[in-house]
Amino acid sequence: MNIAFELNGNNVEANVQPRITLADHLRHDLCKTGTHVACEHGVCGACTVIVNGDAVRSCLMLAVQADGAQVTTVEGLTPDQGLSALQASFHKHHALQCGFCTPGFLTTAHVLLTEEPDASKDRIREVLSGNLCRCTGYINIIEAVYEARSAYANPEKSETGIQP
Length: 164
Known about the structure:
The protein has five helices and five strands; from the N terminus they run E-E-H-E-E-E-H-H-H-H. By secondary structure, it is an alpha+beta fold. The protein folds into two domains: 2-75, Ubiquitin-like (UB roll); 85-156, [2Fe-2S]-binding domain (DNA polymerase, domain 1, Orthogonal Bundle), CATH 1.10.150.120. Strand 1 and strand 2 (10-15) form a beta hairpin. Mean pLDDT is 93; it is low at 158-162.
Protein backbone atom coordinates (compact mmCIF):
# COMPACT_ATOMS: atom_id res chain seq x y z
CA MET A 1 0.00 0.00 0.00
CA ASN A 2 1.19 3.52 -0.73
CA ILE A 3 1.41 5.76 2.31
CA ALA A 4 2.57 9.31 2.94
CA PHE A 5 3.24 10.94 6.28
CA GLU A 6 5.44 13.51 7.97
CA LEU A 7 8.46 12.06 9.75
CA ASN A 8 10.46 14.38 11.98
CA GLY A 9 9.30 17.36 9.93
CA ASN A 10 9.98 15.81 6.51
CA ASN A 11 7.47 14.34 4.09
CA VAL A 12 7.86 10.62 3.49
CA GLU A 13 6.21 8.42 0.89
CA ALA A 14 6.53 4.66 0.81
CA ASN A 15 5.03 1.49 -0.53
CA VAL A 16 4.64 -0.89 2.41
CA GLN A 17 3.21 -4.31 3.03
CA PRO A 18 -0.09 -3.96 4.93
CA ARG A 19 1.19 -6.20 7.74
CA ILE A 20 4.44 -4.31 8.56
CA THR A 21 4.51 -2.48 11.86
CA LEU A 22 5.41 1.18 12.10
CA ALA A 23 8.43 0.20 14.22
CA ASP A 24 9.77 -2.10 11.53
CA HIS A 25 9.10 0.44 8.78
CA LEU A 26 10.89 3.18 10.72
CA ARG A 27 13.89 0.99 11.51
CA HIS A 28 14.33 -1.09 8.37
CA ASP A 29 12.98 1.10 5.58
CA LEU A 30 13.57 4.63 6.88
CA CYS A 31 16.73 3.92 8.94
CA LYS A 32 15.38 5.55 12.11
CA THR A 33 17.07 3.06 14.38
CA GLY A 34 16.57 5.13 17.51
CA THR A 35 13.17 3.47 17.71
CA HIS A 36 14.01 0.25 19.52
CA VAL A 37 12.06 -2.99 19.37
CA ALA A 38 12.09 -5.29 22.37
CA CYS A 39 8.93 -7.03 23.56
CA GLU A 40 6.86 -6.53 20.38
CA HIS A 41 3.73 -6.65 22.58
CA GLY A 42 3.47 -2.98 23.59
CA VAL A 43 4.55 -3.71 27.15
CA CYS A 44 8.09 -2.29 27.44
CA GLY A 45 7.80 1.13 25.75
CA ALA A 46 11.15 0.93 23.94
CA CYS A 47 9.44 1.51 20.58
CA THR A 48 7.46 4.59 21.66
CA VAL A 49 7.18 7.33 19.04
CA ILE A 50 4.97 10.39 18.83
CA VAL A 51 2.05 10.20 16.40
CA ASN A 52 -0.06 13.33 16.04
CA GLY A 53 1.10 14.48 19.47
CA ASP A 54 0.43 11.21 21.30
CA ALA A 55 2.95 8.71 22.64
CA VAL A 56 2.32 5.50 20.68
CA ARG A 57 3.84 2.02 20.82
CA SER A 58 5.05 1.65 17.25
CA CYS A 59 5.27 -2.14 17.55
CA LEU A 60 1.47 -2.22 17.89
CA MET A 61 0.73 0.20 15.07
CA LEU A 62 0.78 -0.76 11.43
CA ALA A 63 2.75 1.47 9.09
CA VAL A 64 -0.37 1.97 6.95
CA GLN A 65 -2.06 3.56 9.99
CA ALA A 66 0.52 6.37 9.85
CA ASP A 67 -0.78 7.50 6.47
CA GLY A 68 -1.42 11.25 6.74
CA ALA A 69 0.00 11.46 10.27
CA GLN A 70 2.80 13.46 11.86
CA VAL A 71 5.32 11.03 13.33
CA THR A 72 8.26 12.03 15.52
CA THR A 73 10.96 9.59 16.55
CA VAL A 74 13.67 10.20 19.13
CA GLU A 75 15.84 11.50 16.28
CA GLY A 76 13.25 14.22 15.71
CA LEU A 77 13.59 15.46 19.30
CA THR A 78 17.21 16.51 18.81
CA PRO A 79 17.64 20.10 17.61
CA ASP A 80 20.33 20.96 15.06
CA GLN A 81 22.39 22.87 17.63
CA GLY A 82 22.79 19.98 20.11
CA LEU A 83 20.82 18.24 22.81
CA SER A 84 17.31 19.25 23.75
CA ALA A 85 16.71 20.38 27.33
CA LEU A 86 15.21 16.97 28.11
CA GLN A 87 18.16 15.11 26.59
CA ALA A 88 20.63 17.36 28.41
CA SER A 89 18.82 16.69 31.68
CA PHE A 90 19.03 12.92 31.06
CA HIS A 91 22.77 13.33 30.54
CA LYS A 92 23.20 15.53 33.62
CA HIS A 93 21.30 13.14 35.88
CA HIS A 94 22.86 9.97 34.45
CA ALA A 95 19.34 8.82 33.59
CA LEU A 96 20.54 6.10 31.30
CA GLN A 97 22.93 3.21 31.45
CA CYS A 98 22.73 0.82 28.52
CA GLY A 99 20.45 3.29 26.69
CA PHE A 100 18.14 0.75 25.10
CA CYS A 101 15.02 2.11 26.82
CA THR A 102 16.06 5.76 26.58
CA PRO A 103 14.35 6.66 23.27
CA GLY A 104 11.01 5.44 24.64
CA PHE A 105 11.47 7.38 27.86
CA LEU A 106 12.42 10.55 25.96
CA THR A 107 9.45 10.43 23.59
CA THR A 108 7.02 9.60 26.39
CA ALA A 109 8.42 12.33 28.65
CA HIS A 110 8.38 14.85 25.79
CA VAL A 111 4.65 14.28 25.24
CA LEU A 112 3.97 14.52 28.98
CA LEU A 113 5.90 17.77 29.43
CA THR A 114 4.41 19.28 26.28
CA GLU A 115 0.93 18.67 27.71
CA GLU A 116 1.77 19.15 31.40
CA PRO A 117 4.89 21.28 31.88
CA ASP A 118 4.15 21.47 35.61
CA ALA A 119 3.83 17.70 36.11
CA SER A 120 4.63 16.54 39.62
CA LYS A 121 7.10 13.76 40.35
CA ASP A 122 4.16 11.48 41.09
CA ARG A 123 2.58 12.30 37.72
CA ILE A 124 5.89 11.76 35.93
CA ARG A 125 6.31 8.42 37.70
CA GLU A 126 2.75 7.42 36.73
CA VAL A 127 3.14 8.30 33.05
CA LEU A 128 6.57 6.70 32.75
CA SER A 129 5.45 3.54 34.54
CA GLY A 130 4.65 2.00 31.16
CA ASN A 131 8.30 2.21 30.10
CA LEU A 132 10.58 -0.51 31.39
CA CYS A 133 14.24 -0.12 32.27
CA ARG A 134 16.42 -2.93 33.56
CA CYS A 135 19.41 -0.76 34.48
CA THR A 136 18.72 2.55 36.20
CA GLY A 137 16.13 2.03 38.92
CA TYR A 138 14.09 4.99 37.55
CA ILE A 139 15.09 7.54 40.21
CA ASN A 140 17.48 9.42 37.92
CA ILE A 141 14.98 9.26 35.06
CA ILE A 142 12.27 10.87 37.23
CA GLU A 143 14.74 13.55 38.40
CA ALA A 144 15.81 14.29 34.82
CA VAL A 145 12.25 14.70 33.57
CA TYR A 146 11.32 16.78 36.61
CA GLU A 147 14.24 19.16 36.02
CA ALA A 148 13.43 19.51 32.30
CA ARG A 149 9.96 20.89 33.12
CA SER A 150 11.21 24.48 33.16
CA ALA A 151 12.23 24.28 29.50
CA TYR A 152 8.70 23.20 28.57
CA ALA A 153 7.04 25.83 30.77
CA ASN A 154 9.18 28.60 29.23
CA PRO A 155 10.55 27.26 25.93
CA GLU A 156 12.04 30.58 24.85
CA LYS A 157 13.81 30.95 28.20
CA SER A 158 15.25 27.45 28.45
CA GLU A 159 18.24 27.28 30.79
CA THR A 160 20.26 25.56 28.06
CA GLY A 161 19.15 27.97 25.35
CA ILE A 162 17.79 24.99 23.43
CA GLN A 163 14.13 24.47 22.68
CA PRO A 164 12.58 21.42 24.36
